[in-house]
Design a protein that fits this description.
binds fe (ii) ion; mainly alpha; single chain; 169 residues
Length: 169
Amino acid sequence: MGLITPNDYDNLRALYTGQLRYLLSTENQTVAGLESMIKHAQDEQLKQAFQSHKQETQVQAERLERLIADLNGDADDLKDPIITALIGSGVNITRESSEGPVRDAGLLATAQKIEHYEIASYGAATAWATTLGLTEHAAALQKTLEEEKHSNELLNKIAQRTNSEAVVA
Ligand SMILES: [Fe+2]
C-alpha cells in the first residue's frame, strides 16, 4: 500500500487525490459492512434498502477508481479509520441484540451515520474538485453525493415504521 508522508499534501490537488483514496476505502469497507447488515437485519424492506445500497456502493467505488486513475494517483485505497469505527459500532449492536426490530433500529442508525459521514466527505471532495477545475470529477462526485442523500432519506422513511415496532418488540 502506498503510504502518505507529511510532504505529500503540499497543495489542494494532492490533498484531493488522497481524499479520493480514503473515500475508496470508505466504499470498500461499506460494502463489507452492508453485507453483514443484510445478514442480520430482519425487516424485509430494510434488507432490500441495504442490498440496493450495496450495489450502488460497488458502482461508487468503481467511480472513485476511475477518478484516481485519471489523476495518475496510487490506486491503493488508504484505510479510513472513521468508517472502520462506524462499521464496528454496527457489529457491536449485532452482538448486543437478538434478531428483530430493536436490532434493526440499531443497524438502521449505524447505516445513517455512515451515510452522513459519506455526505460530508463527498461534499468536501466535490467542492475541492470544483475549485481545482476538475469539472468531470465534480459531476461524478456530485452523482454519488445525491445517491448517498437519497439512501439516507429512504432509511429515514423506513425508520418511521420500524422504530415504532421496536418500542413494543
Ligand atoms: Fe457510498
